[in-house]
Structure formats: C-alpha cells, structure tokens
Predict the structure.
Amino acid sequence: MTEINIELSAVTEIVREAGKLMTDRHMEISQKGNQSNYVTSCDIAVEAYLTERLPKLLPGSLVIGEESTHNPSQGTLLWVIDPIDGTSNFIRDIGISAISVGLVKDGEPYLGVVYQPYRDEMFYAKTGEGAYLNGDPIHVSQRDFAHSHLCSAMSLYDKRYAPPCFRIIDRVYQEADDLRRLGSAAVELVYLACGRVELYFEIRLFPWDAAGAIPIIREAGGSVEALYQDKLPLDRPFPVIAANTPENFRRLREIVTEEIPELPF
Ligand code: IPD
Ligand code: CA
Ligand code: CA
C-alpha cells in the first residue's frame, strides 16, 4: 500500500481530546433500530468533534461515522469512526468502551487508533510502523489454542444469527481456556493485539467496529479477516475472525467456517 503522509500523533491528539466528551454522565439516551441498540448525546458529541477535526489532517478525506454518515465513496481516503464502541457499557458505567478511528484507503485499513478513556489507554498503529500502547510497542501473545481466551458476542443487533454464534462459542470453549464478552468489539480486538486475549469472533460487525483495530492487530503480529470478503466492506456488516498466531487463526477459521459455510446474510 502506498504511504499516506499523516502524523499518527495528530490523530491520537484529536482522539484524546474527544475522550473528554465521554466523561459527561448526564447523557441523554435514545433507542435506535432494535431493542438493544442505544445512542447517547455523548456518542453524537464525540462523532461531531471527530468529523469536524479529522478531515482537516488530510485534504480530500471523508468520514463514515456510525451515528451520521453511512454512504462511502469508494476510492477516497475515509475516516471510519465509531464514536463510542460499547455504548451499552457506557450507559451502565461499566468502564469498558472506546473511541475507534480507522483510516481506510481503497477498502484497506491503513491506520488505526482505539482509545479507552477509563484506563487512559491509547492503542495505535500505522501500516509498516508497528503497533503501540501509550508509546510502548505491543505484540500478540504466543499462547496456543488450549491456553487461549476467546472474545465473542451473539449478534446483539440481529438475534436471528445468535444460534450459530452460540455453537461456535461452545466449540471453541471446549478446546480453549476461557471466554470473555467485554461488550466493546474495539476493546476486545486491541486486547488481542497486546496479548491480553488470543481469539476473536463476531458474526456481524460493522466497518466502524473494526476499522480502527485491524491495523493495530496486523502491526502487532496477529491475523484478522473479514470472512468471505476481499476487502473491508464499508456499507454492510460482515463476520470477523482474529487470532494471535497463524495456527490459532487456522483452527478458529476452521470451526467458524464449518458452522457458517457461507455469508449468512
Ligand atoms: C457494539 C459493541 C459490541 C458488539 C457489537 C457492536 P456499539 O458496538 O462493540 O461489543 O458485540 O457487535 O455493534 O453499538 O456499542 O458501538
Ligand atoms: Ca460499535
Ligand atoms: Ca458505537
């Protein structure tokens, strides 16, 4: 991929500032889509802030944001933004939510920033330059499948697809060490990048859930794939698998593709 002239520190600075908007506990909450899907005034404020600031770093770049713009123009540089990943955790004050920002060129995530304000943890990576957490290089763990922790979920926003998720989770759980459901895909994915967990599967992620974490996992030595897709889709949900080592990725992929032999939606 051709290099894009952008300072990662300029992006992390903007994202850190946006994190301050997540400290307001008097947010307004409304429901969107299905019964489990919420948006708060903080989601809207963070997205508006990022949408105003990020395109100024790269002339001609555009934004896809979970709460506002969903129509991508292919071929351009796109900031793919989830203002708060883990909104349900955020509403309940559980302390596991993140701002996720990816810069995508021609369907390839190039740069990613995931910020967890509760722990002041800034994860970031630019293709070819390594992955970092608060200035320190990060790497995936080398744990084998039997000693792995899986992060997963059960198609929260379309529960018709929950049964294969439960089957996959059960099969992996029988072979691996343990399971976590943290409630923020972006946090789970960057935890894989820094060696806190090893396996990840979700049947139905949106581009904004994954675009920030993908370059971070890859630069940290892990594997991540949008299953049955050539490039990262920007206009629809897709299954995602990720793992620390190539062996674990192969085994997880095997289990997932046996249970979901084709794109189910
Ligand atoms: C959700 C969270 C959740 C995952 C869902 C996502 P949101 O994002 O990441 O952990 O299971 O697939 O949509 O709605 O909190 O931004
Ligand atoms: Ca999300
Ligand atoms: Ca969100």
